[in-house]
Amino acid sequence: MKLFQPHLLVQYLTSADFFHGAVMTFWLSIASLAAGMAVGLLLAVGQEAPLRPVRALVWFYIWLFRGTPVLLQLVFAFNVLPAFGILLPGFACAVLALGLNEGAYMAEIMRSGIRAVGPGQRLAARALGLEESQVMRWVVLPQAFRIVIPPIGNQFIGMLKLSALVSVIGVKELLLTADETASSNFRYIETLTAAGIWYLVLTTIFMVIQSAIERRLRRRTSARSAVIAIEPAIQTIR
Amino acid sequence: MTALLEAAAIWKRFGTLDVLKGVDLSVTRGECLVVLGPSGSGKSTMLRCLNLLEPIASGSIVFEGQEIAGLPRKQAAALRRRMGMVFQNFELFPHLSATDNVAFGPVRVKKTPQNEARELAHHLLRKVHLPDKLTAFPDELSGGQQQRVAIARALAMEPALMLYDEPTSALDPETVGEVLTVMQELADEGMTSIVVTHELGFARRAADELVFMDAGQVAHRAPVDAFFNGSAPDRVVRFLNRMHG
Q1: Do A123 and B53 touch (CB under 8 A)?
Q2: In this structure, what CATH number is given to the domain that contains residue A97?
Q3: What are the C-alpha distances in Å from B210 to residues A15, A170, A193, B213, B219?
């Protein structure tokens, strides 16, 4: 038996099993990142709260979830929650654990975005008669989101790879697909290489999307200038 | 004439530092009150106390016949809609076009329909002589243009009183004039305003009354002619001479 059989690699790479594994990895990452962003935003806003107990709670959350391995959190969610009568399917467990963990990191990113919006902006908004929650919603967050888009792109690529951990609780994503396939025929080189190539495909797609978004953000100003240059022409036509 | 706004004995502390030590100040409808004074004398802090952006330790502020000092948050926010404020650093919202900056207050605070608010914004941008910058974003405008958009943004709330906090201090000299012109036009139309500035020329032309602040207190107050004719206290005259330096 040859050590490496290219036709096997091609077969795995194009198999429905691996494709489904990649799709699972993709949705797992999207769902976990979305959950992480929601949690992170909540934590970041909580960190800016005037109430000390709220800030303490946020500190505790971040301390807890950044201070313990995500693998532990994952296994914890899968094995301990049922003891409390909470029976979640593997996918939900995975999103819960990855999302809560991601939230702790996302909080720092969101907070840096919120902090980057100067105090003068809030003052100007308050001077117009906005209440605190409106200042956050209409002035601070829209500006903060533009600032945090690039780091969130990085987090997503990290999440694609982190999601491989979920194989330990039996969610059939890419790594578990490769592992199960290999355990039936011991073709580890071909199966793992196929999974690796799928990961690279996914990360490459997102790196391209990320750089396109960043380019657009950078070009924003010149795009506006173009609009302004055409505007008088449009008005003449009207 | 009754005062539109009358502040009495305002006291403001930052920690252990007394920034305002019993400031009395009043402005009647249609009047332009210019506040002069050395930096650190508490001028900007006073403006922020008047529209409740800063809470005061003691004293009274009566605005449109109502005591407003110590109003709770929600009511304070509602009150600020009646006072426009213009900042030294403009503080336009960088993610919004000039039109959307001006329409922002009406849309978000007064819940004015978008179309109506944008029409109002276009009207106000023409009023501050920026008819060709409706779609421009703040980073495409000069300092003077940004400050005029900021004035239009404040006017969009249809305030009873305008507060200007050193509106030309951050500007290139060549754009100072266009901002002062707009402010003077507004004053001439009868917009009540309190202007903290170092522009003595503007004070001479536009002010009805002047206030000189020093070390957290109103050190001198006089109508515009009396203020500049040399009859002011020594301290004020010395300050004016230094400004002309």
Answers
A1: yes
A2: 1.10.3720.10
A3: 83, 78, 80, 10, 11
